[in-house]
């Protein structure tokens, strides 16, 4: 059979086709979930993320110490093996979760861990932030998703290239060097906004400075040991990252707007789930990226009836993956068919998760009726449509100073995120911030200001008044008083 050769680059023919076929920046399937339950699952705590991060770093230091103590003996091999797996393997899921901004409640703590883990993985933070945003926008859409691990046709060389990450060393180093010199490749220019490219240059230079200092240390010491702690673990420990990461989408369907067909959930034991930060619940993560890693098992329990049954273990998942890749070697159009995905009525994308879509009603005295306040619980949002426009109506958790001013709890904003087409009523309302359901962009609900990438443009806020149990608005733009 003749292989169908597709262009997996981000600026090629398949990239243009993805727009023509309606696959780029499209709307995706999302199962229904009770609004209040989703709100509970979206809660972040610094304590949980701090505990897991300190345990990870403690193990890293512990195995690093054991490796040092056992230098010169064969015991150094397993000790460095464990150190590398924690550094270049478990570092990946910390990088991922903090990149979404969902691990810690405090935003700067996410950023600190994100930058540290980015270095461990030799990923320039700015490039990979935007790469991962695209991965979530157009998951496994050929020509759009930069994180497809197994392009088709599959081949032994390609599969080995994924599972032997040391093979990517020259390319990763060369790419970092080019970016440090301000020579950005097409993919970087395609993914990163122009005004962020200088960051990529300086990040690459910082990496080269640290790696160069490590190399100098090795030279002066006449030993490779410093590099075994800094730099090389990215490669000799990456097997664990690949072991986990390949399970996420390998062999599954390309060009489909439903994560149940292109992503995989696999049951794992608690040790693997700790190392992988629960990313084995990968279908759930893609559908609800505002839910932090520690709540994914509970999210799975809520929505599993709408998904294909999870693979029972990593062994069963890999059996299925390798069988599929083998068939794709001969027939690139073959997909793991997933006949077990439930046929949910109306499964094409609807705004169903809030359960609270309302249509703004009559206008009296210039005030538009937004519906009853009752039923909009604190910390949740409701979509409101009026004419051709759509809005998000939020109820914030009341603060002490709000006593006697109940309408100060309610906020009305533009419905659509300024980064994409996601509806903010489906996002997470965290204190007085709304986090976009698609890529975790954040907006201040006091000012409308965009607080977190990839959102950079503000949303407009509008007046809201509570009258006789109903909410009304003149749709006049306003900035709310107080601080977020
Ligand atoms: S659509 Fe991307 S942050 Fe909202």
Number of domains: 2
Radius of gyration equals 24 Å
Bound molecules: FE2/S2 (inorganic) cluster
Q: In which range does the helix fraction lie? A: 40-55%
Largest sheet report: 5 strands, mixed
From the spread of the alpha carbons, the general shape counts as globular
Spans of at least 5 consecutive residues with low confidence: 346-356
Topology record:
Blueprint: H1 13-20, H2 35-41, H3 46-69, H4 76-100, H5 107-120, H6 125-137, H7 156-163, H8 169-180, H9 186-191, H10 197-221, H11 225-229, H12 233-236, H13 238-249, H14 259-262, H15 270-275, H16 282-287, H17 296-303, H18 314-330, E1 358-359, E2 363-364, E3 367-372, E4 380-386, E5 389-395, E6 410-414, E7 428-430, E8 433-435, E9 442-444, E10 450-452, E11 461-462, E12 465-467, E13 470-473
Parallel strand pairs: 1-4
Antiparallel strand pairs: 2-3, 3-13, 4-5, 5-6, 6-11, 7-8, 8-9, 9-10, 12-13
Helix pairs in contact: 3-4, 4-5, 4-13, 8-10
């Amino acid at each position: 059979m003749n292989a169908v050769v597709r262009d997996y680059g981000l600026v090629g023919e398949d990239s243009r086709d993805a727009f023509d076929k309606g696959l780029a920046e499209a709307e995706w399937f999302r199962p229904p979930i009770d609004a209040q339950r989703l709100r509970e699952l979206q809660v972040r705590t610094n304590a949980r993320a701090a505990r897991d991060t300190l345990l990870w770093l403690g193990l890293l230091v512990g195995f690093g110490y054991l490796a040092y103590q056992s230098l010169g003996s064969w015991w150094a091999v397993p000790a460095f093996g464990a150190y590398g797996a924690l550094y270049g393997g478990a570092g990946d899921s910390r990088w991922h979760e903090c990149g979404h901004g969902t691990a810690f409640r405090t935003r700067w703590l996410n950023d600190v861990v994100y930058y540290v883990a980015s270095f461990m993985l030799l990923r320039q933070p700015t490039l990979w932030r935007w790469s991962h945003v695209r991965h979530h926008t157009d998951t496994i859409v050929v020509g759009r998703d930069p994180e497809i691990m197994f392009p088709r046709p599959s081949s032994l060389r390609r599969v080995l290239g994924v599972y032997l990450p040391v093979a990517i060393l020259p390319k990763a180093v060369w790419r970092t060097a080019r970016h440090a010199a301000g020579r950005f490749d097409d993919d970087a220019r395609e993914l990163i906004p122009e005004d962020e490219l200088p960051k990529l240059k300086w990040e690459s230079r910082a990496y080269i400075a640290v790696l160069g200092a490590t190399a100098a240390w090795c030279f002066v010491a006449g030993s490779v040991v410093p590099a075994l702690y800094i730099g090389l673990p990215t490669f000799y420990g990456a097997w664990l990252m690949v072991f986990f990461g390949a399970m996420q989408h390998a062999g599954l369907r390309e060009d489909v707007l439903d994560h149940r067909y292109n992503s995989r959930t696999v049951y794992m034991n608690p040790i693997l789930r700790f190392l992988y930060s629960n990313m084995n619940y990968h279908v759930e993560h893609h559908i609800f990226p505002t839910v932090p890693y520690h709540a994914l098992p509970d999210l799975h329990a809520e929505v599993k009836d709408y998904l294909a049954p999870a693979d029972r273990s990593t062994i069963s998942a890999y059996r299925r993956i390798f069988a599929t890749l083998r068939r794709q070697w001969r027939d690139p159009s073959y997909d793991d068919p997933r006949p077990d995905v439930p046929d949910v009525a109306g499964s094409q994308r609807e705004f169903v998760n809030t359960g609270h879509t309302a249509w703004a009603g009559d206008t009296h005295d210039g005030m538009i009726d937004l519906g009853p306040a009752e039923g909009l619980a604190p910390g949740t949002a409701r979509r409101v449509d009026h004419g051709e426009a759509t809005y998000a109506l939020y109820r914030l958790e009341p603060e002490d100073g709000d006593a006697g001013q109940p309408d100060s709890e309610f906020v009305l904003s533009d419905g659509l995120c300024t980064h994409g087409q996601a509806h903010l009523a489906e996002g997470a309302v965290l204190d007085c911030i709304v986090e976009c359901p698609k890529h975790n962009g954040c907006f201040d609900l006091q000012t409308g200001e965009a607080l977190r990438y990839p959102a950079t443009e503000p949303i407009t806020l509008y007046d809201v008044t509570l009258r006789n149990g109903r909410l009304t608005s003149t749709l006049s733009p306003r900035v709310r008083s107080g601080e977020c």
